[in-house]
Design brief:
It is a multi-pass membrane protein. It is a single chain. This protein has about 90 residues and is mostly helical. About 75% of the residues lie in helices and about 0% in strands. The protein has one domain (about 10-80). It contains 2 helices and no strands.
């Protein structure tokens, strides 16, 4: 292997990880919006349509921030795990 690239993940594995997190960041907040709106705010609490939509949007934004935080945490922890090669002195 090339000396500088020995500790890096293969490109395809990095691509798969990024795609998984992108889908996770897109799908989970949208699902949380509709699940919370339909099951909690419309069915159980019987709120008006606009009110339940606003509260559901707030929940979706919070979920979005949590998923982004998980992605950032994963990226940060991955960079700390990679061992650095000592610099050779001639």
């Amino acid at each position: 292997m090339i000396e500088g690239k020995a500790n890096e993940l293969p490109d395809f594995q990095v691509f798969q990880t990024v795609i998984k997190y992108c889908l996770f960041i897109i799908i989970v907040p949208v699902l949380s919006f509709f699940v919370v709106k339909i099951l909690i705010f419309d069915s159980i609490l019987k709120l008006e349509a606009v009110t339940s939509s606003v509260y559901s949007a707030v929940v979706a934004v919070v979920v979005l921030h949590v998923t982004l935080g998980l992605y950032i945490y994963r990226a940060y922890s991955e960079s700390e795990k990679a061992p650095t090669k000592p610099v050779k002195k001639d």
